[in-house]
User: Fold this.
Amino acid sequence: MKWEIISTPKAPAAVGPYVQGIKTGDTVYVSGQLGIDAAAGKLPPSLEEQAHCSMRNLGAILEVAGAHYDQIVKTTIFLQDMNDFGKVNEIYQSYFKNGFPARSCVQIGRLPLGGLVEVECVAVITE
Assistant:
């Protein structure tokens, strides 16, 4: 099976030994995206800003792979605090126009760089 590394300067570089994404066939796997502002190179202070940055980073990686939000079939959201679930949901849902993918959302002990939210996804290119 052939696969291709997906990378873009429009999303933050990996902060460890992994890649931004992998494309194999019509499937795209996007690594967890912290809420780092790609232009500034750092985490913004608020949860809301970080959630938007996480989703925009996913979108930038998907775009390079030839995919978009509505082709996402599965996401996982990692939260520093489950009390942020409602706020993140409001932001998350604004990125989908034609229904929602399957999803898991978990609270974890700690995210890299002190992040408040991280989102990963799997997309299937259907067009």
User: Anything to note?
Assistant: DSSP finds two helices and six strands in the chain. Helices lie at 47-65, 85-93. The chain has a mean pLDDT of 96. The beta strands are 4-6, 21-24, 27-34, 72-79, 102-107, 117-124.
